[in-house]
Amino acid sequence: MKATHNPPTDVQVTPADLLRMAALYLRRHGWHQGTYYAPINTPTPPACAAGAISMACAGRTVDHFLDIDADDRRLYLDAQAAFVDYLDVHEPVFHIDEDGFVIDQQAQPYAWNDDPNRTADQVITALEAAADEWDRLHTEGGEQ
């Protein structure tokens, strides 16, 4: 590339890209449970899985997905949906009564992230695996 060459600026970020950025965010800034972000005064606080996806998308802390710029909101929602789809298949969070009926399907990924037995490594691994799954389904034809 020549020094005067202008690289394309219309690179399309995918939900998989955002999930990988969220995993990287957690590696660099730490993981948190209970709320989107740890209550510390820093522009890059430790975050839960959903908070890391928000941070990767918006580049700042947000209290609700509606606080994300309208242009980026669809990408955020698609990344969250990809993560939820992955968790629903590989690590569902629900309780079953003695008759085999689902009695309490908890909100994913929040309940999954906040499980007292969860670890940061599990969250990072799940975000990366969800990204790989999205890529497989959307860029490799979806064959298994």
Helix content: 40-55%
Task: Give the overall average pLDDT.
Answer: 84
The total beta strand count reads 2
Please state the overall shape, judged from the principal axes of the Cα atoms: globular
Structural class designation:
mainly alpha
Proportion of β residues?
under 5%
Listing every helix as H and every strand as E from the N terminus to the C terminus, the arrangement reads HHHEEHH
Unreliable spans? none
Instruction: Summarize the biggest pleated sheet.
Output: 2 strands, antiparallel
Strand order of the largest sheet: 1-2
Quote the distance from N terminus to C terminus. Answer: 38 Å
Brief synopsis:
The chain is mainly α. About 50% of the residues lie in helices and about 5% in strands.
What does this structure look like?
This protein has 144 residues and is mostly helical. The protein has 5 helices and 2 strands, in the order αααββαα. The chain has helices spanning 15-29, 49-58, 70-90, 110-113, 120-139; strands at residues 94-96, 102-105. It has a two-stranded antiparallel sheet. Helix 1 (15-29) packs across helix 3, helix 1 (15-29) runs antiparallel to helix 5 (120-139) and helix 2 runs antiparallel to helix 3 (70-90). The mean pLDDT is 84.
